[in-house]
């Protein structure tokens, strides 16, 4: 790159033939014109697909989860981020990790998604069952946390987009009817999200568990809150360790 003391034709901008004229630190400069490439390796394509799918899924969760629960993780200053940035960042870290058994690292999997982060005990799903009337019932582990912890059951599509959110439930309930035909359970992913409201403050949250039905294996696939927590930790050290204090913010 040549620095021009007097500029070229009195200074310039943009490309001329094989060179580009521009400003650099207040000086007129000229450099070779470079045509950027658009890499299409398998790894790069997978990464782009992961980001694109998480972006679409996050948009559907914006009002219910991203804005209210991820704003606390926003960064300020030179490397400022938004709640949406932090939601996508955390989910990319989890899905790129190899901590979830049987998962294809780097590939989007709605069952690995985290809608909330925190130290509250998860209420991991146990099974998707027929409720006796042809609809789907999800059951979850009631042994952790407090019996009156609130539970939100989020029904999402395979693309991660939210379809319905069931509230008014507690950890002690242990089950919820989804309103999804049992024969169609393969079409959804179910997140069981525990939280504890705090008067005058942010609610306590959890790395929650999720469940989906694998039609090929003819079995339920559960990704536990502990697996998601470990995947988040193993995805990079930039956020620091996840505290063990129950309900602590991460």
Describe this entry's structure for a reader.
It contains four helices and 13 strands. It is α+β, with helices and mostly antiparallel strands and 250 residues long. The strands form three sheets. Strands 7, 8, 10, 11, 12 and 13 form a six-stranded antiparallel β-sheet that branches. A four-stranded antiparallel β-sheet has the order 1-4-3-2, with no helix packed on it. It has a three-stranded antiparallel β-sheet with strand order 5-6-9, with no helix packed on it. A hairpin with a 2-residue loop joins strand 2 (14-16) and strand 3 (19-24). Helix 1 crosses helix 3 (83-96) and helix 2 packs across helix 3 (83-96). It is globular. Mean pLDDT is 83; it is low at 1-11 and 237-250.
Summarize the structure.
Helix content is 21%, strand content 32%.
Q: Helical segment tally?
A: 4
- Low-confidence segments, given as residue ranges, are 1-11, 237-250
Largest sheet: 6 strands, antiparallel
Q: How many strands appear in the DSSP assignment? A: 13
- The 3D shape can be described as globular
Q: What percentage of the residues does DSSP assign to strands (E)?
A: 25-35%
In N-to-C order, the SSE pattern is: EEEEHHHEEEEEEEEEH
What percentage of residues falls in helices of 4 or more residues? 10-25%
Terminal CA distance = 46 Å
The secondary structure category is alpha+beta
Average pLDDT metric? 83
C-alpha Rg, in Å? 24 Å
Which terms summarize this structure?
250 residues, alpha+beta, 6-stranded antiparallel beta sheet, globular, disordered C terminus
